[in-house]
Amino acid sequence: MLFAIWIVSILVCTAIGSKKGNPVSGFIVGLILGPIGIVLAIFSGDKTRISCKYCAEKISKKAVVCPCCQRDL
Ligand SMILES: [Zn+2]
Predict the structure, then answer these.
(1) What proportions of the chain, in percent to the nearest 5, are helix, strand and coil?
(2) Which end of the chain has fewer surrounding CB within 10 Å, N or C?
(3) How many CA atoms are closer than 13 Å to the CA of 71, on its beta-carbon side?
(4) Which residues surround ligand 1, an ion (CB under 5 A)?
(5) Direct distance between the N- and C-terminal alpha carbons of the chain, in angstroms, rounded to an integer
(6) 19 CA distance to ligand 1 centroid (A)?
(7) Distance from the CA of 18 to the center of ligand 1, in angstroms?
(8) What is the spatial distance between Cα 16 and Cα 11, in angstroms, rounded to a whole number?
(9) Band of the pLDDT at 66, cuts 50, 70, 90?
(10) Ligand 1 centroid to 51 CA: how many Å?
(11) What is the pTM of this model?
(12) What is the pLDDT of residues 39-56, one digit of tens each?
């Protein structure tokens, strides 16, 4: 039973990790921490998004112009 929970945790962590642009670290966190890793993965930083230095909105890392305040980055 615990084994099944662990497998699900790894899968969920990997899914969350890939959404945030880092599936490998998601997988590792799930593998080591199991269900606790899911919580950690949810609250970990999003690698694909950064905050705008002018308006502090979360925007894509690849953005050249901020979609919120229209400033050049
Ligand atoms: Zn902005």
Answers:
(1) 50, 10, 35
(2) N
(3) 10
(4) 52, 54-55, 66, 68-69
(5) 50
(6) 22
(7) 25
(8) 9
(9) very high
(10) 8
(11) 0.69
(12) 999 988 778 889 999 999
